[in-house]
């Protein structure tokens, strides 16, 4: 009987040990996310910019408010573009998606995140000064309603989805055209109020 029980006990102990290790690993991942949300700082994960020869492009990432108070992101600046806006993407009356400047900025509650992603909220670079090529690093400074700032660097990546095209009839709304190949240029904005 001892011979039969020992392998069974060893198997049971091995299974318990494996489950404990798996639980620790998953707890570790959860703690990493929780740590970012309670770090006492503003942080960003996976920041990147879509490559562009000229005209417009956008920046993305997940902005985490690790402070104990709500913050409101009101502006973004980068030397890569002379004109930048915070954009939101919403369904329009025709059933499509349109993007426009987010009036008043984005509020991020304490411990919460703001996801900036293609086809969603993003930082729009309206007038790219020089080509942004894959592998380039683009510096950004974000400004919050209390005049505090946060700086980060984003990697430039090629991305063919969610290409933006300007629809002048929507008075500065941007149409999301997932299949379009031409990108709008800064010249298309001439004469429009921003």
UniProtKB/TrEMBL annotation:
Superkingdom of the organism of origin: Bacteria
InterPro entries: LpqE-like, Lxx211020-like, PCuAC_sf
Name of the protein: Copper chaperone PCu(A)C
Entry keywords, A to Z: Signal
A Pfam family the protein falls into: PCuAC
SUPFAM superfamilies, alphabetized: DR1885-like metal-binding protein
Coiled-coil spans in chain: none
Signal sequence segment: 1-25
């Amino acid at each position: 009987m001892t011979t039969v029980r020992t392998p069974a006990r060893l198997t049971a102990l091995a299974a318990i040990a494996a489950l404990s290790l798996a639980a620790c690993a998953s707890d570790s991942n959860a703690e990493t996310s929780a740590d970012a949300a309670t770090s006492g700082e503003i942080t960003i994960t996976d920041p990147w910019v879509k490559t562009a020869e000229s005209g417009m492009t956008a920046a993305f990432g997940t902005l985490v408010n690790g402070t104990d108070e709500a913050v409101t992101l009101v502006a973004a600046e980068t030397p890569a573009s002379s004109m930048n806006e915070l954009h939101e993407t919403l369904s329009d009356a025709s059933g499509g998606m349109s993007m426009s400047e987010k009036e008043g900025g984005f509020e991020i509650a304490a411990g919460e995140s703001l996801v900036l992603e293609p086809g969603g909220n993003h930082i729009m670079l309206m007038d790219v000064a020089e080509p942004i090529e894959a592998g380039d690093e683009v510096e950004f400074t974000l400004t919050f309603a209390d005049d505090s700032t946060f700086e980060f660097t984003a990697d430039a990546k090629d991305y063919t989805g969610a290409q933006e095209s300007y629809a002048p009839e929507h008075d500065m709304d941007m149409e999301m055209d997932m299949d379009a190949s031409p990108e709008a240029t800064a010249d298309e904005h001439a004469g429009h109020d921003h």
